[in-house]
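Continuing the batch. This is chain 6 of the set; chains 1 through 5 are on the previous pages. Same settings as before, nothing changed between runs. Recording input and output for traceability.
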Amino acid sequence: MQMMRNLLSHYGTLVNFAGVTLRCFFTPQEIYQVPEDEFRLKDRLGYRAKFIGRYAEFFQSEGASLAGVADNDLMVEFQKIKGVGPYTAAVIASHASRDPSALGIDVWNRKLLARHLMGVDDASVEAVMAACKAAFSGYEAVGAMYLIEFEYMSQPVAPLMTKADLRARNDRLALSV
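Output for chain 6:
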C-alpha cells in the first residue's frame, strides 16, 4: 500500500468523480526518465525500483505496436521485458491489456482455485490452469477473478469505508497534492 501510495502521490494526478477523490495512474512517458534511485529512495520501492523503469521503457517504445498483437501472443511479448516471467506477463496481459483468458497463477491463487474448481487443497499450476480452461474457456482470468473475489467477500483484506471515513480520506488526499 505504501509503495503504491507513494507512486500515485508523486507521479499520479487526482480525479474527482461522484463525490469520491481518486488517484489516477501515470503513463509510461511520465515516469520513463525517473532515475532508479528516486524510485528506490523517494518512493520506497526497494528491489522493484529497477523493474518499473524497464516496464515504462517497454510500454513507451513498444506500446503502440502491441495494438495488433493477438491476445494469446501478448504474454510472449511481455516476457521480452527483462525480469518478466510467465506469471507477471499473464498479470500484465490480464489487467493492463484486458485479456480475459490471461491468468497468472501464484501460490495463493493456485491453492484457492484448486479448492474451488477441483475440490483439493492444492494442485500443480498446469492442473489448475486446465481446470480453469474447462470451467471458463476463453475467460479463465475473469472466472478466476470472480472466484478469488468470492473468497475475499467473507474475509476482506480491507473492510468497506463508512461515508464519514470516505470524506475524511478524500480531504486528506486533496491536502496532500
